[in-house]
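ok so i was messing around last nite and threw this chain in just to see what happens. nothing serious, just curious
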Amino acid sequence: MSSSRRVAIITGAAEGIGRGIALRLAKDGLDLGLFDLPRSQQKLEQLAEEIRKEFGVRVVNVYGDVSKEEDVKRLVDTVVQELGSLWAMIANAGISVNRVLHETSAEDLDKVINVNFKGTFFSYKYAAIQLIKQGKGGRIVGASSIAGKKGMAGQTVYSGTKFAIRGMTQSAAIDYGKYGITVNSYAPGVIDTPLMGYLDEYHTSKSGQPKGSWTKSVGLRW
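result:
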């Protein structure tokens, strides 16, 4: 199936920043491939239906795990098959496990690296393969963070992965510019998302402070 509309993939699209990106790109008239974990199916289906009704664009939902290479390849293949092409990959999916370095387990280390760094890597990789094949340029965008520009207390591994995404993005931009493909990352500050609620709960349980106090202390703007 082909369309004159540009097509964008957003990973981690069911809620938070990914959901906001999906709504904005739909408003701008792009067809969308939305990707999230199977447990987010209800939220993603509701989002897709909202987008179809309000903006009249086509939406394809795909479920899987960005940390698994075969899932990301399947994501790109499915979206291209259903919507005809690819123009932009928004590698938004990410997680955080907030611990100081010496309290971070190997399991948590692997979990954050697998989702944040490997998941972004795989998203860049299969988007680049498809965009180069099409020969019409395109956009690749990844989620860094304010913690990818400056280290933050209790975020050793998270911050490390977000710094890594910046380095990968800059290198990929050099490699793919000759194909008309731009590669950029965005670095949000503290945003009111479910992830931020999880982090607030963790920090306030440790400090004994009221819920919401941690997010306010790091500059959340309601």
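not much to say yet. The chain has two domains: 7-189, 191-222.
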